[in-house]
Write a structure and sequence with these properties.
Oligomer: heterodimer
Structural class of chain A: mainly beta
Largest sheet of chain B: 5 strands, mixed
Largest interface: A-B, 22 and 19 residues
Number of helices of chain A: 0
Radius of gyration of chain A: 13 Å
Helix content of chain B: under 10%
Order of helices and strands of chain B: EEEEEEEEE
Helix content of chain A: under 10%
Distance between the termini of chain A: 36 Å
Strand content of chain B: over 45%
Number of strands of chain A: 11
Number of strands of chain B: 9
């Protein structure tokens, strides 16, 4: 299995632009999680899905952030418009029920 | 939100056992103890988890005290590749993993 696949690995964008991060979970996993990591706040859960349905989005910082999971093999996290304070590493993870989560390699986002 | 307490950093000599402690005095009956680690610039990696019995897998052993108020992750023969931040996490079901600040383990040659 190729694991959880995230793209792009690095993204540099200008303030005000739309950014879309992508994630392909492990086949057969029914949970998908989006995390954000910064030096100041560590790892924070943004949103998670169960069977493609958003369950808890209380960690999404504001309306500029949105996430979708149109099918079991694909999810996106979109930021529109992006701001410098959104600069962070964004991780996607998937799991089968409450077994160990498998994380992707992350997307390093820089907003200038 | 932090329900676990870990030392901020530890050193371990290469080839020796690394014992990473975690206090979770307010753990509830249905909370599992999970351990993850994050090697620099990589995504967190699952290591092991347990409820009340000691657990062992190919990576590590998990020792949970009888009252479940603390636990220890043991890496039996630490290598340089085990240098990472180790997170002790309490979890019920498939919900949020709250990572906290973890223990930065440095394996010294």
């Amino acid at each position: 299995d190729a694991g959880v696949i995230q793209s792009p690995r690095h993204e540099v964008t200008e303030m005000g632009q739309e950014v879309t991060l992508r994630c392909k979970p492990i086949s057969g996993h029914d949970y998908l999680f989006w995390y954000r990591q910064t030096m100041m706040r560590g790892l924070e859960l943004l949103i998670y899905f169960n069977n493609n349905v958003p369950i808890d989005d209380s960690g999404m910082p504001e309306d500029r952030f949105s996430a979708k999971m149109p099918n079991a093999s694909f999810s996106t996290l979109k930021i529109q418009p992006s701001e410098p304070r959104d600069s962070a590493v964004y991780f996607c993870a998937s799991s089968f029920y409450d077994y160990g989560y498998t994380f992707g390699s992350g997307t390093r986002l820089t907003v200038v | 939100d932090a329900k676990t307490t870990q030392p901020p950093s530890m050193d371990c000599a290469e080839g020796r056992a690394a014992n990473l402690p975690c206090n979770h005095s307010t753990i509830s009956g249905n909370e599992y103890v999970y351990w993850y680690r994050q090697i620099h610039s990589q995504g967190p990696q699952y290591i092991i988890h347990g409820l009340k019995n000691n657990e062992t897998n190919e990576m590590a052993s998990l020792i949970i005290t009888e009252d479940r108020k603390s636990s220890t992750l043991i890496l039996p023969h630490a290598t340089l590749r085990d240098t990472a931040v180790y997170y002790c996490i309490l979890k019920t079901g498939a919900n949020n993993l709250f990572f906290g600040t973890g223990t930065r383990l440095t394996v010294i040659p």
